[in-house]
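## Example pair
The file below holds two records. Each record gives the amino-acid sequence first, followed by its structure token line.
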Amino acid sequence: TIFVAPGVYHEFSVKNEDNLRILAAPGATISSDGARPAVRVEDSTKISIEGFKVRAADGDYAHGIDCDNSQLFLKKMQSNWNARTGLNAILCDVYAEDSDFLTNREFGVNATNSSMCLKNVRASDNDEGGVSVSQELPVYKVEAHDSYVANNAGHGVRADGGSLRLRNVDIFENDGDGVSVFDTFTKVEDSNVFRNSEKAVMAEGGTL
């Protein structure tokens, strides 16, 4: 375990590490000027990151947290005001708990060919949508529990392929559909989907 003192740190990048844990004290922030993501995890890394505020200001690569081909555990993270997506995952297994992905210029959370579990997560006020999922194989699964997705400029939750499970998730006041799914095995349980600009749930293909 690595303990990080309060302060502002310029970018964090890790690759090919196993069972690494990074624990931040209150007031620890990771920032980037946007040339690279603020947090980059890649090359079969297995890591737990807890307690940071994350912000990537501007630039083509300015995701707050970017995961590529790794296992990532996030807890008590705030990845807000990023020039692209708050949490971006490609070919990853991700678990995020007690975390915020707010006011990003793209999505709050994006999963591409990745499995992901979101628990007590907020994805709101993002410019292109709250949670976006794009999967090529049904083996990839995304679940959200005890979370809310609200006030996004696009759809609340959009999935194309794979499987999606929403349990006790509030999805409201998004500018598109509350839940929009294509060719996706979808299960929505004990969730509130209301006051979205278009449909509450729009499904095409797959099962619902």
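Second record, same layout:
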Amino acid sequence: DVLHVLHYQLEGSEQEALDAYSGGMISRNAYYFEQGKISDREFKHFEELVMSYAGSITVRSFPRFAARISTMDIKNGIAEYRKINGYSPDVVIVDSMDLLTDATRRQWGAEPERSKRIAVANDIEDRDWLNNERNVLTEYNCSEAKGLARPCTHLISLNQSSAERKECLMRLHVAKSRFFRKGDTIKIATDYDNEVFYDSQRTLNLNRD
């Protein structure tokens, strides 16, 4: 499918975000092309690979930390994107939501109760529970601490034991979904060393096993 992505980078530069996307597209760590460590032969191969892709990625960055970017800025940016391109983005990514404020640009306080819940959750983290691969984080695990679940159409938790981290594996759990069945857990392979969250080939081999 052809997808047009609008990415808001609320911490860090546009170049950092684009380098990460570029690394993901060619399955190589961004360090190699940032430092010019890719041979001409490899570069030509990667160029042909990228040219075969369809769609687009547009990055808007706000590198100054805590610049109080609001939900209204996001909505206005989407409207501007639509005006320039003649179509709306298929996917909007905000990295990350916790750096957004609301449309009033209000400077929110410490929210003592929320802070207390997060602190308690950190204190009682049960590594043995997390390392049991039969366990997954559900809607219940995050709804009280961070208020994330209620406004979400879909909520997918990322679950990884210490053993899975060493093997570059992860379990995605569909904790909430309004339009299809929830409760499924999907095991995938990752390749963070080469800027790839989802390693499709290794994942297919996992499913064959």
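Notes on the second record: The mean pLDDT is 80. The chain has nine helices and eight strands.
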